[in-house]
Amino acid sequence: MGGGWRAVPRPATLKEPKNTVLVLEKELYERLEAEAKRKGKSVSALVREIVKQYLTGDASAETEGSK
Amino acid sequence: MPVPRPRVLSDSKVVPIVFERELYNELVKVARSEGVSVSALVRMLVEEYLATKKKASNGSQNPGVDPVIKMDLEDLEEELDKLADAVHSIEVDLQRYGEKAPMLNLRIRGAENTLKKLRAKYRAVRGLPGSDRVAVKLLEVAGRVKQLKKAVK
Q: How many domains is chain A partitioned into structurally?
């Protein structure tokens, strides 16, 4: 027993994740990335927030924290 | 010799995204009902979101103040006029093509969401001189959106 540091996986952000890919125009992606950076979030988190806002019709659906 | 499918976007970037399964299923359902791909639907939502953000930040003079509060009545009225135009185009399409009009549900849902945002913006300027005119327009557009929803149900 070394008693050393043992790597633990990062806790999951989402309970039931579904991986997918989106094809965005480069220019749109860059604008999205800049907005995500400004908000201190990942692009993925920002897209989730936008989709959630749309589906719930709630402009205050900014539930996820920073990266 | 097989020919590759022509590209939809000229200069594109593939972005990996992780959705909650429930959210993803809902998104797929909406995209299917509108006859568009999930990518196309998300592109549209992202574009709309960024356009709204840009407009809000242009309207704010002081970054410490809520941009919604700073947005003046003229901007709000302009946005309402745009929404009224969009609603008019849905009404025309509905009359022309019936329920088979392209992306009907998506457009009505978009109009509803925009209306919701404009209502929130109106609350911030309510009581200011000239806000009565905006209130009348807001009510008129809201009535038309309600009629559209009824017609599609």
A: 1
Q: What is the pLDDT of residues B35-68, one digit of tens each?
A: 778 888 888 888 888 887 766 666 554 444 345 4
| B93: containing domain | 21-152
Decide if A23 and B12 are in contact by the 8 Å CB cutoff: yes
CA dist., res. B115 & res. B79, Å (int): 10
Instruction: Give per-residue pLDDT as tens, B59-102.
Output: 554 444 345 444 567 788 888 888 888 888 888 888 888 887 77
The shortest CB-CB distance from B120 to any of A19, A48, A59 is to: A59
**Complex-level ipTM:** 0.77
How buried is residue B131: exposed, middle or buried, by Cβ count under 10 Å (0-12/13-18/19+)? Answer: middle
* Number of domains comprising chain B: 1
Q: Is residue A53 part of a domain?
A: yes
- pTM reported for the whole predicted model: 0.53
Domain presence at residue B146 = yes
By Cβ distance, the residue of B12, B21, B49 closest to A25 is: B12
- Dist. CA A38–CA A57, nearest whole Å: 23
The rounded distance, in Å, linking the Cα atoms of B10 and A5 is: 48
A15 touches B: beta carbon within 8 Å: yes
Q: Is residue B9 part of a domain?
A: no
CB under 8 Å to B4, separation ≥6 — which residues?
A: none
